[in-house]
Design goal:
The structure holds two protein chains of two kinds. By secondary structure, chain A is α+β, with helices and mostly antiparallel strands. Chain A contains five helices and 16 strands. Chain B is built from five helices and 19 strands. The C terminus of chain B is likely disordered. The chains are: A alpha+beta, B alpha+beta. The interface between A and B is medium-sized, with 22 and 19 residues.
Chain lengths: ~350, ~325
């Protein structure tokens, strides 16, 4: 039976991994546009309640009304925190630094209400922070990327005089032996208290018997012996929450403050490829733009995929991500990284 | 804005059909003016035969009796009798059309008049007009019955916009709503997908996206209103019912030049139908040029021209 994980085998202490918020903000910055700011201290005083967001950074006397077309608002603080809205067509009033949202913001009892002054907000383009209707969010892309990035971990076991140990609690071990890379133990007279663990020469195996999954060790471990199984876990399954610390999670990172055991540099290239691929699909279905604009966007997305983020993701999988010592550059994660796309 | 009198006189002058005089005296059957005195003995007593005589000050109109002009005293006899002119009354003589239409005081004058021509021209000339409607939160429909007489087609809903910097044309701007700050200028609201529901005499404005609860202020419809429907009487602009220009001091929105250009087209069309001839030739020959000038005016609605075809096309055919 596996115990709590040892630590993520990634450089850094648990609390220094980037949060989900930091991951999606990095993605937003690269995928399109991102602005974190707060509403002006001059509140809305007329017009339709809940329609306008006043932001000093948006003041520009010379901007077109469609300047922020396709953008999204995410409210971070205040009574309406968590609300997201698409920015409305022809909704930029540059002189006032005002942008209109496509659906009015509402307060308590579902009554349309303006955002208060000095409320933290963020604007993203072209995707929202979280899924809105049928539009995927940046967080979804980060989570999908974290599904595809495997990080190293150790599961510790106490011997029970047998060679078989249940892995029922490690339900993220779904790919059999390819997801493990040997056992480290303190055999041959070494001590877990004073000595580092050493790789066991005996190859472990994952045995699947219907719904029962177990680990078979190459040698028998007595009740006083402990050992560790080196494994690779999806970054989305190894999550730090402020309430639960590090744990294997089924739900993955949910809150902005949750951490995944992978740095931005690992998540970002994958999320970017997923995002650009997703935008290509959205672009093809968008009936509201001209063919010229569709072609322009296609060229932009493909250029970024092929010249920058595709190669970055390839390098990540082939040279950077942890892999089994005996393996050639790992491919299983790379092969599942796209939605049917042949990555560069 | 130009007054009824200014427009009439400018139109009549453009047709070389006006003599404006100041009365010095008169009786119940005559008018006397120093400017009518002619020292040449060859001046005919028939100089004003049949002319329309209009006392613009008293708004009384008669015709000049044949052979009644007395050149030495500057006297013309009118028929039927009228209220004696006072000194300094403004007296207009015209021959092609009377100044005003018929009414109780002018029983003989059921003819087409300069007044009716000007009002017809104003029906052909649109004037941008912004209608304010108090916002009703969550309402999808706003009554426009007050404007049913003229807000009867989509083309009258919306003002032309300048093209985008790229040169791409923009659709007319139809609706405005309050901006985010008190006192700020109203802002475009066509995103609410406004449309006219043209239901006979009870048209309504329909909004696919109504205003949210708590919204106050007014929304504004940008319309193109026939100029005869928006007249200032004694300096107060208001919706008119059917009258158009009536009093001498009534004002209309189009410029004097625009109104006269279109009214001249209307007048020439009447004259061409009569078959009369001007000093420079047949009136019908002047129609194409008059049409070309009128149709070059930005807010001239050629679709309302009462003929089946523009004159120059009819002529070419």
């Amino acid at each position: 039976m596996p115990h709590a994980l040892v630590v993520p085998a990634v450089t850094g202490t648990p609390t220094t991994f980037p949060t989900l918020g930091e991951q999606y903000r990095a993605l937003a910055d690269q995928l399109g546009a991102y602005l974190a700011t707060s509403t002006s201290d001059r509140g809305v005083s007329a017009g339709e309640p809940g329609r306008w967001v006043i932001v000093n950074e948006f003041r520009d006397d010379d901007e077109e009304r469609d300047r922020f077309l396709g953008g999204w608002l995410n409210v971070l603080t205040g009574a309406q925190a968590g609300n997201q809205r698409r920015l409305r067509r022809s909704g930029h009033e540059g002189y006032h630094g005002a942008v209109a949202v496509a659906s009015v913001l509402r307060g308590s009892n579902d009554v349309p209400a303006n955002l208060a002054e000095n409320v933290a907000v963020e604007f993203t383009h072209p995707l929202p922070v979280r899924r809105v209707g049928m539009t995927k969010g940046l967080v979804d892309l980060v989570r999908e990327a974290a599904d595809r990035v495997y990080v190293e971990t150790r599961l510790s076991f106490d011997g029970d005089g047998s060679r078989s140990y249940s892995l029922q609690n490690a339900n993220w071990l779904t790919q059999g032996n390819v997801q493990i890379d040997g056992i480290w133990d303190w055999a041959d007279g070494t001590s877990a208290d004073t000595d580092p663990a050493r790789r066991s020469p005996y190859r472990p195996e994952i045995v699947t018997n219907g719904s029962t999954v177990s680990l078979t060790t190459g040698r028998t471990y007595g009740s006083t012996q402990s050992f560790e199984l080196k494994a690779f876990v999806q970054a989305s399954r190894l999550v730090y929450t402020s309430s639960g610390g590090w744990a294997y999670s089924t739900a993955g990172p949910l809150n902005d403050s949750d951490q995944v055991a992978a740095p931005v540099a690992w998540i970002l290239p994958v999320a970017m490829c997923l995002g650009l691929d997703y935008l290509l699909g959205l672009n093809a279905k968008d009936r509201a733009i001209s063919d010229t604009e569709r072609d322009r966007r296609d060229r932009d997305y493909n250029r970024r995929l092929e010249t920058r983020w595709g190669p970055a993701m390839r390098d990540l999988f082939e040279r950077v991500l942890p892999r089994r010592d005996a393996d050639p550059p790992r491919r299983y994660a790379r092969e599942t990284a796209g939605s049917g796309r042949r990555w560069p | 804005m130009p007054t009824h009198q200014a427009l009439r006189e400018a139109l009549a002058y453009s047709l070389d059909d006006l003599s404006v005089n100041t009365a010095s005296s008169g009786t119940s059957s005559t008018v006397v003016s120093a400017s009518l005195i002619n020292g040449l003995s060859i001046a005919s007593t028939n100089r004003f035969d049949g002319a329309y005589v209009f006392n613009a000050t008293k708004r009384l109109q008669r015709r000049a009796q044949n052979g009644s002009y007395l050149r030495a005293s500057g006297t013309v006899t009118v028929d039927p009798t009228w209220t004696s002119p006072s000194a300094n009354d403004r007296i207009e003589f015209s021959w092609l059309f009377p100044a005003i239409g018929s009414d109780v005081d002018n029983p003989l004058l059921a003819d087409t008049s300069y007044q009716s021509i000007l009002n017809e021209a104003h029906r052909l000339l649109m004037t941008p007009r912004r209608l304010a409607l108090p916002i009703v939160p969550d309402a999808y429909s706003y009554s426009l019955a007050t404007y049913a007489a003229w807000l009867d087609r989509e083309e009258r809903f919306g003002w032309p916009q300048t093209p985008l910097p790229s040169g791409e044309p923009r659709p007319p701007l139809r609706l405005l709503e309050p901006g985010p700050f008190a006192g700020s200028a109203p802002i475009p609201a066509d995103w609410r997908r406004p449309r006219l529901n043209l239901n006979a005499d009870t048209p309504t404005l329909e909004l696919e996206i109504p205003f949210a609860a708590g919204t106050s202020g007014s929304l504004y419809l940008q319309t193109m209103c026939p100029a005869d429907r928006w007249i200032a009487v004694s300096g107060v602009w208001a919706e008119t019912v059917n009258d158009g220009l009536l009093n001498e001091s009534d004002e209309s929105r189009p410029s004097l030049q625009e109104t006269v250009t279109v009214a001249r087209l209307v007048a020439i069309d009447y004259l061409a139908a009569r078959g009369v001839t001007s000093a420079s030739g047949r009136w019908a020959d002047q129609l194409p040029a008059a049409w070309a000038k009128a149709s070059a005016i930005r807010y001239f609605d050629a679709s309302l021209w009462r003929g089946n075809e523009p004159p120059q096309l009819a002529r070419a055919g």
